[in-house]
């Protein structure tokens, strides 16, 4: 049983919910652009990929070798295992991960150690890239991979250059001896290049001779990526504008809970909004008000009925939570809720995400993410932020939780103030979430709570240091 079925416990929510057509929202990472970079071993594809990654701060993946059997591992240490054959690559896992990323889902990328000739126990999590670089000798080999690529690049260099680069790399980075490298080159690398790698040249969109030294080709690729990023940003902003226009005439969701405007609440709001209030008083009364908001949010968490026997022997029909509650703090404003959260739920597990608006376009962008590993199994997830104006950041924050397996009806957004436009926009896309707000505004208001709470001003777009 959820709290929505218990009218007396949820601060005024009706026992029924208005059914409304869900609007559509797609985050900018929902259709990630993937660039494939293929070429012979030593052709400069890794250096070229790293140059693109460095210029544009993009994620880069290349670790999809199959796990070796004990016999294959023994052969690998003797330089007798063929790593330059398509059979060495786990294309099924590669395609699965690329499809996850293409759909906007988080992907766990395997990590391969060439020194140990084995996959490591840990993985690398990739989530929300706008553009991804896939690099490897067989990046353009599998038709399933080619279908997912937005651009295919083939790097080429003469054989002597490739061999010299491979010698330097394998000695420095992979701990191999020169004799073993040359043995692999003539036994596996060169024959497989002619048989499997060179034919990929025919399906490439761009052929790059001389690798990183080819500045013209590098600039072309960077311009292509920048164009893709600009298009994604423009489409995202247009989608947000359409959502705002479509939600203006719609009724406010029944799942928006506004705190009762009691005399005590008005008193605390007066202190908080008075420009002459001392910082110490502001923090004290905001903490009190934040506690009320969090307690109201917990009223909308999931409960189930339970009968207990009191010390006097009477039966009491009560409620218990159906599972654990965790919180996700939207930095930086949501941090102002932490003292109240710790007082209300001392052992509450927390996650963090940082969403900032681009200074030039106003588009919300996800910059940092750390969530509890089992957040999808939590019965209730509190999403905490001090203010919501247009709802763009809140939309993205809820989408992140949904992408990580959290069901909509388990999310409760708790905020001090929210504009009606933002509330309409958010609940039209996610009609099953609950929003608890202290002050609902008819106009958009600049963020001011965290500036006063943390007692220093932040101007423009700044970086936030995150610890703990």
UniProtKB/TrEMBL annotation:
Q: Molecular function (GO) terms listed? A: ATP binding; uridine kinase activity
Cleaved signal peptide residues? none
Q: Which organism is it from?
A: Fusarium culmorum
Q: What is this protein called?
A: uridine/cytidine kinase
Q: Which BP terms from GO are recorded?
A: UMP salvage
- Give the top-level enzyme category: transferase
Domain of life (superkingdom): Eukaryota
Name the EC number(s). Answer: 2.7.1.48
**Tagged with keyword Nucleotide-binding:** yes
Q: Which InterPro entries match?
A: P-loop_NTPase, PRK/URK, PRTase-like, PRTase_dom, Uridine_kinase-like
